[in-house]
Sequence to fold (306 residues):
Amino acid sequence: MHASLLMDVLTLCVQTGHTQHCSMVLEQMMSWANRSDSKELPSWQYCRDLAAQLDEFFRSQPVSSIAIDDPWAPFFRATAEIIIKNSRLDDVNLGIITASLTCAGGVQALMPIMDAEGIAYMAAKKKASVKRLVLHMHAELLSPEAIAQAKQDLDELFMTCVSTVIERFDFAGLSDLTGDGAVNKVIALLKFSFDAGVGIHSYHIVLNQLFSCAGITRGQLLETYLTDILVPFVDLLRTLFAVLGVSIKEGPIKFFCSVVTRLFVSKSCWKKACRDKIYRCYDFWLWLLRVWMYQVFLAKWSYGPM
Fold:
């Protein structure tokens, strides 16, 4: 079943004033795409191709001639969902998702797709895809004229997505990475959060996780985690914030940097103090040895003339 043939049928229905029949055509198409074992393409690709042609058709019509509601909205909403959950989210597919969601009602069409269950599935199975989806939706879904409630709903959705990605981030595995790999992964996570429109509101979650994996919250500091990850991270954090225009004096960030600095200084000073004590002990015992040898020398030569 080719999208171009379906478009011919749908266009005929619209032009003859029988738009109500379009819902039946779309439902049959979706049913066929989902159950056919002999189809050449996956279900989402049939839906994507038809959605692209429908969107182009709507754009070519006078605004008043096509009402973007039933029977179109259910199809576009289903198309957005099946592409999000089953396809590789490249630029083409992300563009179709945005167009489909816009035709289906915008943010309100996205909310049921990216509910708690949907976000958890995406974060577990398609972590890279959920990042691309969030960044694309943040940049493209809302128009400047969008109402305040839609903006608030989308901000809350992005915060949930970012928090879920952070929760599934392997903080413990950072210690297995070499070079700057560990620090750069955390910086990328923070940058994703900022670019998604969440700003620094999720940063405290990341910083607390770093403290936990370093053993700081349990009172059992892992010194290699401190020296190899946390200390280099503070310097890159300062650089990142300079680029983002964020003050490093912000509450959780200032606290994090102060704790890391204090721990590093205390450990370094403690080691230096230990070395100084060892050197002093060594000097003392060397001095005693020299005194003893001098006394032995004097005793030997004091009996020599006799």
